[in-house]
């Protein structure tokens, strides 16, 4: 176990020891299979499971992190996908969410960056390759990605947040491929088409403008940078940011949430907006519990926790935000790293269309 001095820590806000407490609270929720559910009685989904594995990696808890990745290997279906939701090992939703499936590439690449373990990279490569092939097969003519696959076929609706997250995951997948000498030019083309669509054809996506994730995810995922990113953040800042508490999950409700606030911190970090990133990271700490776990959110109109649960993925977002702000690990810059491949988005102009679901 790493000493506290080597763990993600943000002076005056979160200590290394507190970071460890949060990581331990996540590991304590891990099931014997390696799955990491939302809470001790909650369900598991592949995206949040991988986010938790990343946090465990950043905090130096490598054994439970690797058990989490082994769970992904054991549960992957022949087509490269995973079910959307499990509970206590039983599949509750057998459909496949493309964003959930793509995120394994982010988790594996992050683990390789943090540990330098090429044997792990080789072991996980077939899983990542199969997952990204599954996702690329669901790309629409305009570059956007169908959000899900059901037994009856693709759900031909592309969600902005999901596609923005997929964009980052595909960048990580291409980086992993290049690292292992297994170049994937078809992924690079698909990546470029997706980035082009997000940056220049937002009408190709089903947007949920009331949700904060649609606001910052195109920045967090790396599709928007520079002035585009700054303009997007400023346009909705007052709609989502609540002074002293963090950010709303939904713009018309008096509800702040910790994970979304920490993801905004990561997005601001990609913009080098350190002062506001630190401020928001400090503001959400009211959700911390004594054991290091974090409540999901607060309805500030009446001061009540809601939902009444402490979620592993909220704690995971805290650890990853702390790492980005402190540059404690070699994976700290994974969301802002401009060395990640960006695909071939400047080499073509695709026909971007809105596809009816």
Question: What string, H for helix and E for strand, traces the elements in order?
Answer: HHHEEEHHEEHHHHEEEHHEEH
Class per helix and strand makeup: alpha+beta
Q: What shape does the CA trace take? A: globular
Indicate the percent of residues in helices: 40-55%
Overview of the structural elements:
With 357 residues, the protein is an alpha+beta fold. It has one domain (4-326): Glycosyltransferase (Alpha/alpha barrel), CATH 1.50.10. The chain is built from 12 helices and 10 strands. The chain has helices at residues 16-27, 46-58, 62-75, 98-115, 118-136, 160-179, 185-200, 212-220, 226-240, 258-270, 274-283, 312-326, and strands at residues 85-87, 90-93, 96-97, 148-150, 153-155, 241-242, 246-248, 255-257, 297-299, 304-305. The strands form 3 sheets. The chain has a 5-stranded antiparallel β-sheet with strand order 6-7-8-9-10.
Q: Concise description?
A:
With 357 residues, the protein is α+β, with helices and mostly antiparallel strands. The protein has twelve helices and ten strands. The strands form three sheets. Strands 6-7-8-9-10 form a five-stranded antiparallel sheet. The chain has a three-stranded antiparallel sheet with strand order 3-4-5. The chain has a two-stranded antiparallel sheet with strand order 1-2.
Please describe the topology of this protein.
Elements: H1 16-27, H2 46-58, H3 62-75, E1 85-87, E2 90-93, E3 96-97, H4 98-115, H5 118-136, E4 148-150, E5 153-155, H6 160-179, H7 185-200, H8 212-220, H9 226-240, E6 241-242, E7 246-248, E8 255-257, H10 258-270, H11 274-283, E9 297-299, E10 304-305, H12 312-326
Helix pairs in contact: 1-12, 2-3, 2-4, 2-12, 4-5, 4-6, 5-6, 6-7, 6-8, 8-9, 8-10, 10-11, 10-12, 11-12
GO molecular function: transferase activity
Organism: Mycolicibacterium confluentis
Keywords: Transferase
